Amino acid sequence: MVGITYEDFLDLDHEPDETELVCAFYVEPAADQTPESAASRVASESSNGTWAELQVEGSVTDLSATACGIEDATVSEGRDGYRVTVAYPDALFEPGNMPQVLSCIAGNILGMKAVDRIRLQDCTWPEPLATSFPGPQFGTGVRTDIFDAGDRPITATVPKPKVGLSTDQHAQIGYEAWTGGLDLLKDDENLTDQSFNPFEDRLTESLAMRDRAEDETGETKSYLLNVTAAGGEMLERVDLAAEHGCEYVMVDVVTTGWAAVQQVRERCEKHGLAIHAHRAMHAAFDRLPDHGVSMRVVAQVARLCGVDQIHTGTADLGKLANEDTVGINEWLYSDLHGLTDVLPMASGGLHPGLVPELVERCGTNIGVQAGGGVHGHPDGTHAGAKALRAAVDAVAAGRDIEDAAAETPELAVALEQWGTE
Ligand SMILES: O=C(O)[C@@](O)(COP(=O)(O)O)[C@H](O)[C@H](O)COP(=O)(O)O
Ligand SMILES: [Mg+2]
User: Fold this and answer.
1) Is the Cβ–Cβ distance between 165 and 197 less than 8 Å?
2) Exposed / middle / buried, residue 106 (Cβ in 10 Å: 0-12, 13-18, 19+)
3) Do residues 23 and 88 touch, judged by C-beta distance below 8 A?
4) Ligand closest in space to the Cα of 320
5) Lowest-pLDDT range, 40-44, 80-84, 126-130, 269-273?
6) Residues having CB within 6 Å of any atom of ligand 1
7) Where does Mg(2+) bind (predicted)?
8) pLDDT score at 300
9) How far apart are CA 11 and CA 65, in angstroms?
10) Does the annotation count 160 as an active-site position?
11) pTM for the complete prediction?
12) End-to-end CA distance of the chain
């Protein structure tokens, strides 16, 4: 038997091996703590230690995490902050169980009194753990596997107002957006199965309009159908989406929870459906730079769990606060032990005039969603769609948007209305 205390979880000479999950935390120790004592408490409480000395069998310590790096990283004036690196042994984790992994690295430690602030900033995922998750089926491949978009961004629109439209109105807006050149219709996050626009009616009527639009345009069109609901009900909605010939489902991954996301991934594998991840509530824990869980880690978790597309912000061009859109996108494209990549979706306050700068910052391997930026067009949805598509086509072809506006009056009106900033 050995006695383990917090101090046993600190070893600044420890070199993580390739099987360990390595996490980077931002930590502000409490007044009565040193950086070392705070770091050891982070490693202990996020693996298998606690506040009292424990007498344990030697093998138990094989599951113990190690705080193996402490660097000064003050983010806010007058507050001492540190970048604390913690290495977690593979055996601590249940393969393929994301809630269990998060209960370690983003669990009780976020509420410890030993730290005034703590934020999980980044993870380096080792092969054994990473490959115990399915990853995405399609990723950025949706641009060519589902659409014939080549190297241009795919486009999407959310009917606005967010909720309150009838099923007929919703489907009609879809028709006008699709025939205006957009690839995807997207449900808003709070539109699920309300009486004014019931789920199955919305599904069948929207897909009927989709089929008409495909016939008229000769282009593939699809629908980000929001299946978010309580566990069993959500899986039934996934089955319905497949049954009616939809290529996608949309899930709000944070409000739904990762266990449910993993269930949806399994079901989508069976049907060959792509998963669009919306992230409502993410800002509850990633907005502040010195506490919580970064959007970078949320995106990593979403990729492992198998979403094909995820909202990552507009590189600060839109209406919502964004954290490191470009860095997160690069990670979503990067190699992860052979797991498929993920298509970032830029959304939130976008309009055609912002497309050149968006692509300048994020490249073309993205999705561009505009709700207000399409339906707020002075001439309506169809014109708004034509304007957005013309902007995306022009920028993807390296053309000046003003020149494109000379050929597409709808784009000229949009630029007149909202400018290019
Ligand atoms: O409800 C909205 O605000 C949107 O539909 C955008 O509408 P607009 O195009 O009309 O702005 C999206 O939910 C946000 O973009 C989500 O935020 P994020 O992409 O940052 O996750
Ligand atoms: Mg929305």
Assistant:
1) yes
2) buried
3) yes
4) 1
5) 80-84
6) 158, 160, 162, 188-189, 279, 311, 313, 319-320, 347-350, 369-373
7) 186, 188-189
8) 98
9) 10
10) yes
11) 0.97
12) 66
